Amino acid sequence: MNVEKVEGPFYLLNDDIIKNEDDRKHPEFEGRTVYEFIRVQDGIAIFLEDHLERFFRSAAYLDLPLPATAESIEDRVYRLIAANQVEEQNLKFILGKTSEGESVLWIFFTQSIYPSKKYYEEGIATSLFRIERLDPNIKLVRSDYQKAVLQERADKGVYELLLVDGNEQITEGSRTNVFFVKGNELYTPPAQAVLLGIVRKKVFEICAKRQIPINETAIPVEWVKEAEGAFVSGTGNNVLPISKIGDHLIPTMENPVVQAIMADYAELVRMYKEENKH
């Protein structure tokens, strides 16, 4: 049974805009599916090209043929944004096969809750959670993983969980990538161990321009006590500072490296919106 919550008056199935009605059945998929989230701000799908590149990579990994080119998907996305008259909300893509073996690309707006301004000004509380994601580089739909992290976040009363693997190393957030600051350098888990987030990619670009070294390395849990700053990055969160991991306070809000990256990312988004006005 499909539990996806489709928001708004219309969604897309392949190239068709469909009216979202209570009695209309949404597509049911057989086997594994891949997905992608894209944030729409001011009617612009932020970093759409980067998201599509990752989506096509995920589809190839599962040998799922996409019934569209990147250019035609971009056209569909903006048709859907216009039909729903959306200014700010998350789009979700799901690609899979029906029981008849047909490839279906389902694009729809989903419930979107973004961090409050307070979180950007004061930082978020996080907690460590010992769980590992299979195929971390690919966005696979896994309801068991999603249920586990939702329950743990609720139990601990935190905004985000930092995942810890069997080697007692922090790998990523439950829905984000994670970075730590020591001195004037950033430290983040290696690419092969994490989902390669689009905002993570933009953080690397920002640091290259600012000549801030980034070390891709294993992050032992003990590092939490030595961190001079920390933040997570993700489509729905942008660059979000961490003020607390478990009981340990992190002085992120006073850290100039984190503040510079946050400001630069906000400027990147502003410029992208300006260049992609429809």
From TrEMBL:
Keywords: Aminotransferase, Pyridoxal phosphate, Transferase
Any one GO biological process: carboxylic acid biosynthetic process
An annotated Gene Ontology molecular function: transaminase activity
Cofactor(s) listed in the protein's UniProt record: pyridoxal 5'-phosphate
Family classification: Belongs to the class-IV pyridoxal-phosphate-dependent aminotransferase family.
Protein name: Aminotransferases class-iv signature
